[in-house]
Amino acid sequence: MIKKIAVTAVLAAVSPALASDNFEIFGPGTQTCGQYLASSEHDQLLAEYWISGFFSGVSLAEPTQNQTGMHDATGGKGLTSVLKIIKAICQGEPQETLEEISGRVWVLVTRKNPQ
């Protein structure tokens, strides 16, 4: 619950609409980490496309820029590194959804402090 509050607080700073619990998640973002990790290579790739879209969307909405002046929700780490981080967290938290973990990793890699 505390993790969700932290992510919600950060999202509120970016967009009040994103911070509400009143939005719909579509596609692979709704599956749990356990489902993602147990799925076929093809289905994992589809989930990773969803994660890519999540980070692309946050890059569009997020005002923080990387060293090259680009809006970058991966904090300059790149999508490959973000996917590795998500997979590692998912292994320890199989009950969490990909949407929840993606939001937390975004906060982690961009060093957002919701306080």
First-last Cα distance = 16 Å
Low-confidence segments, given as residue ranges, are 13-17
| Shape field | globular
Number of domains: 1
State mean pLDDT (0 to 100 scale): 81
Number of strands: 0
Give the helix tally. 6
N-to-C order of helices and strands: HHHHHH
Main sheet overview: none
Helix content percent band: 55-70%
Fold and architecture overview:
This protein has one domain (2-109). It is globular, with a radius of gyration of 14 Å. It is built from six helices and no strands. Residues 13-17 have low confidence and may be disordered. It has 115 residues and is an all-alpha fold. Helix 1 packs across helix 6 (98-109), helix 4 (41-61) crosses helix 6 (98-109) and helix 5 crosses helix 6 (98-109). Helices cover 61% and strands 0% of the residues.
Task: Kindly summarize this structure in a few lines.
With 115 residues, the protein is mainly α. The protein contains six helices and no strands.
Spell out the blueprint of helices and strands.
Layout: H1 2-14, H2 16-19, H3 33-38, H4 41-61, H5 79-92, H6 98-109
Helix pairs in contact: 1-6, 4-6, 5-6
